[in-house]
Design brief:
- By secondary structure, the chain is of the alpha+beta class.
- 32% of the residues lie in helices and 17% in strands.
- The chain folds into two domains: 153 residues, no CATH class; 190 residues, no CATH class.
- It has 13 helices and twelve strands.
- α8 packs across α10.
Length: 441
Amino acid sequence: MKKLFCLVGCMFMLGACGGGKTDSLQELLDGLDLVYDPDLLADVEFTTPQGFGVMVGQYISTGNPEYVDAGFRFGDETLASTGFRLRAPVQAGGGDTELKYSLRVNFNYYDGPRFHGIDRIHFANNKNDPSLMREILFSFALQAMDVAAPRTAYAWVKADGDDLGIYTMVEMVDKRFARARYGDENNAAGGNLYKCEPITGIDNGCSLTWAGGSKGDYLKVCLEEDGCGLQLKTNEDDPVMNNYADLIDFLDFLNNASESEFAAGIEEVFDVDGFLRYLAVAVALGDHTGYLGSIDNFYLYRRPDTGRFVFIPWDHNKSMGLTTCALAPHPTGADPETPGCTDASRPLVDRILAVDTYMTTYLGYVQEVVDTVLEPAAMQAWVDQLEALIVDRIPEDPNLRYTLAQHQAGISNAESITGDLNLMEFVEKRHARLLFLLEGK
């Protein structure tokens, strides 16, 4: 598995991970290998100042998930001080009650050291996915197709001695992510990173359509501290970098360049090949909550070393049969040549696929996905690998929404009776559908 993903460096345990920050790129790469080990259910525990139940009660009361100064343990390694909070939406009037909250750790929130060079980890609760696998399987597929995307792995999480249960750890998209992908040369990790933070029912920039030439056209005031729309997540305090000029120039070209200008110039400002690889995976594996559908769950990063924006996907736990594509003629998802799930404009897809050579390249990548990661035997092997890590712990998870029987049905190829497709049911039906559509192309 590790060879498949070409993860850099060998794993090692750093005895003094709490001894200070590091500037070593190699330590970061080795740390990512350590934390996001696809063959391990990691053992993680947080120690909070007043108890995890107090954290939950505070959120339910205020609707604001605040950081607390918590101890952290990963296997045998410990850190005395980290920023720890629920990963839950900011809501006026109080927060929602959950069986299992997603979690977030920020290692140097209170000026503590990074953990093996890593700043933050997201712990996803997989609450909508009875298989508990979709986030990781989608990550496997993206990595196999050489897409710059977060790494994932399982963890059994405790808080103050009490079991919280099975989580999926997800690598955060931040400067450390950029550094691990693009290295240190020519300030490759120092660029502007924009996160799509949508407002339900409102196009506030995440569609990437042209809205005007000012920052306020793409970032609106909302309950989120950083606003809603396209949030700048790096260089926020740099007056030279934080005026959105690079993003506005890109969106101007994306939307307003003539057909000939666009075809000739888009690769100078955008990583087209990386996006086509992502798009092939997203369409083949039915990712309907990202840019193709609800304009959520992605980042744009401008690399200073190349001058090009990169599309970085995020959050795929509702893929592979758990959501539907409104415009799709088939229950497993959209046809590759018409991948959109909405009548609304999606210029990043619409304009790029209007270029014949890019459409041809994209369809070739769809075929590659169908022949490799979506091939039922290959996907079943991944499912079996993940199942071996978690099946014995599922009955021990006190906060899981699904019984062991529901989980096992959820990963099967049996005909679903719930409306959502079971995991391998989706894989087999989607694989057959795409083989039929791609025949002769």
